[in-house]
Amino acid sequence: MKKEEKKLTAAELPIGGIIEAGTAVNFHTGSWRSERPVWNKEKCINCLVCWISCPDSSIKVVPDERKTSIIAGIDYDHCKGCGICAKECPPKVKAIVMEQERK
Ligand code: SF4
Ligand code: SF4
Q1: Which DSSP symbol is given to 14?
Q2: Is 10 strand, coil or helix?
Q3: Which of 50, 76, 86, 90 has the fewest C-beta atoms lying within 10 Å of its C-beta?
Q4: Domains in the chain, start-ordered, CATH in brackets?
Q5: What residues are in contact with ligand 1 under a 6 Å CB criterion?
Q6: Ligand number nearest to the C-alpha of 53
Q7: Which atom from ligand 1 is nearest to the alpha carbon of 86?
Q8: Cα separation, 89 vs 75, whole angstroms
Q9: Which class for 61: exposed (0-12), middle (13-18), buried (19 or more C-beta within 10 A)?
Q10: Ligand 1 centroid to residue 56 C-alpha, Å
């Protein structure tokens, strides 16, 4: 006969591990990418759609002389090559295209 397990109350549950936020910045997590986004500065209209869409915070922004955020390129150390930025860049602009990753 199966022994009945005692159900724990919330107060009796062991405390889980807490991992510090932002630790991925210490590692190059983009090394297994098969495609890379290539940004064209001349075509870019700085709408920031790619920046807000990137799940890995890999679109780099810097302030311009008016303190407005502008795109500064791609952080290839952390970009996974998912292609969301290229997909979300306005079709009439197409300032990001995906290319085969270089070896
Ligand atoms: S390919 Fe994906 S991870 Fe890389 S910059 Fe674009 S949205 Fe971010
Ligand atoms: S979505 Fe395209 S046009 Fe908009 S900021 Fe990004 S690269 Fe530039």
Answers
A1: P
A2: helix
A3: 90
A4: 44-103 (3.30.70.3270)
A5: 37, 54, 56, 58-59, 74, 79-85
A6: 1
A7: 6
A8: 17
A9: middle
A10: 7
